[in-house]
Design goal:
Elements: H1 3-16, H2 21-28, H3 32-39, H4 49-66, H5 70-83
Helix pairs in contact: 2-4, 4-5
């Protein structure tokens, strides 16, 4: 499995756990349409490195706040998403 597919699978897993894909796309600095095509495998595009940086920062914030377990991180991401003020 290539790196792009592996990352897409991890992102898809977070979406399956209930994380809003619009939030992930925004944190990755991607348009919702581009992200949707990519995550749903409707495009052969490769995720840009800058998007990976945004995604890594998003996960790091959640993990640092929630603790070191993946389940805690997902719960924290949901809390951050719920509590984040909308612009």
């Amino acid at each position: 499995m290539d790196t792009n597919a592996l990352i897409r699978d991890h992102v898809s897993h977070l979406i399956d756990l209930g994380i809003n894909q619009s939030v992930i796309a925004k944190r990755m600095g991607l348009s919702a349409a581009w992200f949707s095509r990519w995550v749903n495998r409707k495009s052969s595009s490769v995720i840009p490195v800058s998007a990976l940086d945004g995604f890594a920062q998003y996960l790091l914030e959640a993990i640092q706040t929630a603790g070191s377990t993946a389940e805690s991180a997902v719960l924290q991401i949901k809390r951050l998403e719920r509590d984040r003020p909308t612009p």
